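Pilot study result, target chain (183 residues):
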Amino acid sequence: MNLVPLLLASSPSGEHPPFYLDPHGFGLVFWTGLAFATVLLVLYKTAWAPLLAALDAREQGIAGQKAEAERLRAEAEKLRASYEDKLEHARREATAIIAEGEADRKRLIEDARHAAEAEAREVKERTQHEIGLARDKAVAGLQQEAAKLGLLIAQKVLAAELDANKHRAVIDATIAAYAAGKR
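Predicted structure:
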């Protein structure tokens, strides 16, 4: 049986087409609904599964990207903490190096002060020793001169009369002569 002539046939009175072909009545709704259902059925059979699969894949991709972003954020946080630790360690080392340098500077100053004090003591001792030697030499020279002067006075006294006034005058003259000769 052929449906096309049946669908296209007009009503027996010739006025209106059958209800299922009426564009202003139920026919329009019927054919629109039938077309919609057919498209839905075709889409469900052909496109719905791939569309759901694509949506699931997209959801999994977004979840994977989110997990990757979380992992990268956690890794970045670890790196930041590691760099902060390294920076703090470097600061502590710099502080220790500065403190060590300050201690070395103080030690060098103290060593230089001790060396200067030791050298000053040595110079003082050497100078005192040289002064002592010069004093001893001067005393020895003075003793020799005093002995010579005493002998000279004794010679003059013995040569002169035994008068005390003459003795005194001879001693004074000898001392004056000796003093004048030394100048």
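One observation from the pilot: Residues 42 and 48 are 9 Å apart (CA to CA). A full batch analysis is planned for the follow-on phase.
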